[in-house]
From TrEMBL:
The keyword Nuclease applies. Residues 554-583 are annotated as: Disordered. It comes from Columba livia (Rock dove). GO terms for molecular function: 3'-5' exonuclease activity; nucleic acid binding. Residues 339-540 form the 3'-5' exonuclease domain. Keywords: Exonuclease, Hydrolase, Nuclease. InterPro entries: 3'-5'_exonuclease_dom (IPR002562), Exonuclease_MUT-7-like (IPR052408), Mut-7_DEDDy_dom (IPR037432), Mut7-C_RNAse_dom (IPR002782), RNaseH-like_sf (IPR012337), RNaseH_sf (IPR036397). GO terms for biological process: nucleobase-containing compound metabolic process. PANTHER family: 3'-5' EXONUCLEASE DOMAIN-CONTAINING PROTEIN (PTHR47765), EXONUCLEASE MUT-7 HOMOLOG (PTHR47765:SF2). Residues 568-580 have a biased composition (Polar residues). This is Putative exonuclease mut-7 like protein. Pfam families: DNA_pol_A_exo1, Mut7-C. The keyword NADP does not apply.
Length: 730
C-alpha cells in the first residue's frame, strides 16, 4: 500500500513537471471527469492536494496576469460543485484571494439567484466576502433550510455582522410581525422547513448567539421582553398554581422582571386580573405608577379603598404563619443576637479568629439569586459560616467591593482558601461541589479551592447512605406543602422536623435582607452542625458505619463531574429549557446490580431507550404517547421504579419521588448512548445471559417480543451490545 501511494505521488509529480501549464491541465481534468465530486479522498482530491504541494516547491510554475484571471474564471464554476475538502486547495492553487473582489461578489450573487444558497454562503466564507454582502439576504434562506450552524459561521468573525444579524432576528420576533412575509418569498426552497422557522426557534437562536458572541442583550429588546414575559408567566405559575413561592419572594422577582417597562407592566395587569383579585391588581397598579388609562375601571376604583384593610389582614396572617412555622419546621436553637450579618472587613475579623481555630467544626452554606434561565453562572451573594454558638453571614458583594476599593483583593480569597485547606478544621456542607463551583464563578482566585480542600464532610454523600423510612403524614398534617427533599428531608430524618425552604428562591442580591431571609440562611448552615453531631453520636441507628467520623473527616469533597450539575437554586427557564445539567451525584458509586434487579418507567419521549434497556434484561415500563408525564411518578411510587425522563418534565417529576429515583437523560443522544449513561449511573452490570432474557421463546426459536421493530432492530441491538460492556465499565 505504501509503495502504491509513493508510486502515485512520483507519477503525479512527473506528470506536473511534463505539463507546459499544469494549472490549466488540472482544470481540464476536473472539467472532464466527475470523480472528484464525491465525498472523501477521491482520485481527483489526491491529484489536487499533490499539485498544491508541488506548486509550493516550484513557484516558477505559478501563473499571473490575464492567464491567471482566465484560470480563476474557470475554477469558480467548479467551486460551486466541488466537495468542501477541495475548496481550500483550489482557492490556494488559483490564488482566488487575489482575484478582483467585484468579480467574486458577482459570481457569488449568481449562485445565490440560482438558488444555491448554501454554496454561495460557503464560498463567501472561504473568500471572506461577508463585509460586502447583505447579511439578511444571505442568511434568511439558510435559516429556512435549518442551517443555523452555517449562519453562525457566516457572521462568526465579524462583530458588526453579528450585531446586524441579532437585530434582524429580533425584528422578526416583534409582536405583530408576520413571519409569513419572510417565508412566502422562499416557498419553493429545497429543504424548506417552515415548521422550524417560528418565534420560539428564533428566540432560542438569538439567546444562543448572544451567549456565543458575548453580545449586548440590548440589541434584542423584543426577544428579551418575550423572555421576561415567559419569566412573568412562570412566576405566576409558581405562586398561584404550585404555591411553592412566598408572597415576598414572588413580589421581589416580579418587580425585578417588569422594572419600568410599560409593555411588561401591561401584561402584568392582565395576569393579575386573571389570577388575583381587584385588591392585588390595584396594589400593583399603585406600585408601578401606571396611568389611569392603562387600568380597568374597577381596578382604579379599588385603589383608594384597599390600603388599611390589607394592613390588618397581613398582620393577622403573619402572626398565624409564624406560629405554624414554629410547630412544623426546624428552629434555630441559638438566640437571634448570635446571628451576625457582616458587611465590612473590620466586622469579619472576629469571625476569622473563631472559624480558623484548630479543631473547629464549621457548617458552611451559600446563597445566590435564582437564574430563571438567563445566561451566565450564578454569583454567590451570601456565605454562611455556622459555629456551635453563633452564625456569621458574610455579605460577599459588599466585601468584594470593599476589597477592590482598598486594593486588597486577596484578603477574602486567602481566608476562604485557608479555611478549606486546613485539615484541622472540619467543614460541613451539603452538595459542596456545586457551592464551590459557584464560589469560583464569583471570584476567579478561588477556582482551585475544591482541589485543595481537606477536612470536609459533604452530608449529601452521607444522605445517600442514611437508612431511615420517612414517617407517613396525612394531607392534614402536611397542609398544602410539597414533599420534602434534599437537605430538608435529611433534617427531617435526623432532627425530626424539615427545613422551611420558602425563602430558597429569594432575591439574595437585594439589600437589606429581610428578617426571614436572615433566619433561613442561618438555619441552612446551622442545621448541618446538629445533623453531624447526631449522626456521629449514634450512626448505627441511621444505618451508617460506626466509624463515621474517622471514615469521613479529612477526605476531600466530591469533585463535580465533567457534565454540568444543577445548582440548588437554578430552576427551569419559562420556555422549558433546563439552565443547568444533571443532578448531583454521590462520591461513592452504588453497589453493582444485575438488569433483573433494576426496574424503570420511561417517559413517553424515551421509548427508544426503553426498548433498548428491555433487550438488555431491564424491567421496563413505558408511558404511551398520550399519557401525562405525571403518570410516571404514580407508577414509580406504586411499583418502586426509577423514572427515566428528559428536559422540562424532569424538574416536576423528581420532586414527586425520593432523592435519586428520577434521572434526566440527554435527549440529543442515541438510544445506545442513553443506555450506557443510565447503566453506568446506576451501576447495572449486563452479562450475555441478560440479553433478550425478557423475550419469549416459541416453537420456531426465539421470538423477539420486546417491542422491537422487527429483525433489523434486533440485529442492531445485538451488534451494538457487543461494544456496550466496555463503555459501561470505563
Amino acid at each position: 500500500m505504501w509503495f502504491c501511494v509513493s508510486q502515485f505521488k512520483e507519477e503525479a509529480r512527473r506528470g506536473f513537471a511534463g505539463l507546459e501549464e499544469p494549472l490549466a491541465g488540472l482544470l481540464a481534468m476536473l472539467e472532464g471527469s466527475g470523480d472528484w465530486k464525491g465525498k472523501g479522498h477521491s482520485l481527483g482530491y489526491c491529484i489536487v492536494t499533490e499539485l498544491q504541494l508541488w506548486m509550493k516547491e516550484h513557484p516558477a510554475a505559478q501563473q499571473s496576469g490575464i492567464t491567471l484571471k482566465k484560470l480563476q474564471a474557470r475554477v469558480l464554476s467548479i467551486l460551486a460543485q466541488c466537495p468542501a475538502n477541495l475548496l481550500d486547495p483550489l482557492i490556494s492553487i488559483y490564488q482566488l484571494h487575489t482575484a478582483d473582489r467585484n468579480y467574486l461578489l458577482g459570481h457569488v450573487s449568481h449562485l445565490y439567484h440560482r438558488g444555491d444558497y448554501k454554496e454561495a454562503a460557503v464560498l463567501s466564507i472561504k473568500l471572506k466576502l461577508q463585509p460586502d454582502q447583505d447579511v439578511e439576504k444571505m442568511c434568511t434562506p439558510l435559516l429556512l433550510q435549518d442551517k443555523t450552524n452555517l449562519v453562525e459561521d457566516y457572521v462568526g468573525d465579524y462583530p458588526e455582522l453579528q450585531s446586524k444579524l441579532l437585530q434582524i432576528l429580533d425584528t422578526w420576533c416583534e409582536p405583530g410581525f408576520n413571519i409569513r412575509d419572510i417565508t412566502s418569498q422562499y416557498q419553493g426552497l429545497s429543504g424548506y422547513k417552515p415548521e422550524k422557522f417560528n418565534r420560539k426557534m428564533l428566540s432560542k437562536l438569538v439567546f444562543r448567539l448572544l451567549d456565543r458572541f458575548n453580545a449586548d442583550p440590548a440589541l434584542c429588546p423584543n426577544v428579551v421582553n418575550q423572555r421576561h414575559l415567559r419569566t412573568l408567566n412562570y412566576l405566576f405559575y409558581k405562586r398561584f398554581v404550585e404555591k411553592t413561592m412566598t408572597q415576598e419572594n414572588w413580589t421581589d422577582h416580579v418587580q425585578s422582571t417588569v422594572g419600568e417597562n410599560r409593555w411588561l407592566q401591561g401584561h402584568l395587569m392582565q395576569l393579575l386580573m386573571r389570577y388575583c383579585d381587584l385588591k392585588t391588581a390595584a396594589r400593583w397598579a399603585q406600585r408601578c405608577n401606571l396611568p389611569k388609562e392603562m387600568l380597568p375601571y374597577r381596578v382604579a376604583e379599588e385603589l383608594q379603598k384597599l390600603q388599611e384593610r390589607e394592613r390588618v389582614e397581613e398582620a393577622t396572617k403573619a402572626d398565624h404563619h409564624e406560629e405554624r412555622k414554629k410547630e412544623d419546621y426546624y428552629q434555630l436553637p441559638i438566640p437571634r443576637a448570635n446571628i451576625h450579618f457582616l458587611q465590612t472587613w473590620e466586622e469579619t475579623q472576629r469571625c476569622w479568629e473563631k472559624v480558623l481555630r484548630p479543631g473547629q467544626v464549621v457548617g458552611i452554606d451559600m446563597e445566590w439569586k435564582p437564574s430563571f434561565g438567563m445566561v451566565g453562572k450564578p454569583r454567590v451573594s451570601l456565605l454562611q459560616l455556622a459555629l456551635h454558638d453563633e452564625v456569621f453571614l458574610l455579605d460577599l458583594p459588599r466585601l468584594l467591593e470593599q476589597a477592590v476599593m482598598e486594593a486588597e483583593k486577596e484578603k477574602l480569597p486567602h481566608f476562604i482558601q485557608r479555611l478549606y485547606s486546613d485539615a484541622a478544621i472540619t467543614k460541613l456542607g451539603y452538595g459542596m461541589s456545586g457551592d464551590l463551583s459557584s464560589l469560583a464563578a464569583t471570584w476567579s482566585a478561588l477556582k482551585d479551592t475544591d482541589k485543595q480542600a481537606q477536612g470536609v464532610v459533604d452530608l449529601l454523600t452521607i444522605d445517600k447512605q442514611v437508612d431511615v423510612v420517612s414517617p407517613e403524614q396525612s394531607d392534614e398534617d402536611r397542609g398544602c406543602r410539597q414533599p420534602e427533599k434534599g437537605l430538608s428531608l435529611l433534617v427531617q430524618h435526623v432532627l425530626g422536623k424539615p427545613l422551611d425552604k420558602t425563602e430558597q428562591l429569594s432575591n439574595w442580591e437585594k439589600r437589606p435582607l429581610r428578617e426571614e431571609q436572615i433566619l433561613y440562611a442561618a438555619s441552612d448552615a446551622y442545621c448541618l452542625l446538629e445533623i453531624y453531631e447526631k449522626l456521629c453520636k449514634d450512626p448505627e441507628s441511621f444505618g451508617l458505619s460506626s466509624d463515621l467520623t474517622g471514615s469521613l473527616v479529612g477526605k476531600p469533597s466530591m469533585k463535580p463531574r465533567a457534565k454540568k450539575q444543577l445548582n440548588k437554586q437554578e430552576v427551569l427557564s419559562p420556555s422549558g429549557q433546563q439552565c443547568e445539567g444533571h443532578q448531583k451525584e454521590t462520591s461513592c458509586p452504588a453497589a453493582p446490580i444485575s438488569p433483573k434487579e433494576f426496574s424503570v418507567v420511561c417517559d413517553n419521549m424515551l421509548q427508544g431507550l426503553g426498548r433498548y434497556l428491555r433487550c438488555l434484561g431491564v424491567d421496563v415500563q413505558m408511558l404511551e404517547n398520550e399519557d401525562d408525564h405525571r403518570k410516571a411518578a404514580e407508577i414509580a411510587r406504586q411499583e418502586g421504579r426509577v423514572i427515566l425522563t428528559s428536559g422540562l418534565p424532569y424538574q416536576t417529576l423528581r420532586s414527586q419521588v425520593a432523592e435519586g429515583r428520577c434521572f434526566s437523560v440527554n435527549s440529543s443522544e442515541k438510544a445506545k448512548e442513553q443506555a450506557v449513561q443510565v447503566l453506568k449511573h446506576f451501576n447495572v452490570q449486563v452479562s450475555l445471559s441478560d440479553i433478550f432474557s425478557r423475550c419469549q421463546v416459541g416453537r420456531g426459536g426465539l421470538e423477539l417480543r420486546c417491542s422491537l421493530a422487527g429483525s433489523r432492530t434486533a440485529a442492531w441491538v445485538l451488534r451494538s451490545v457487543c461494544c456496550l460492556a466496555p463503555k459501561i465499565s470505563a
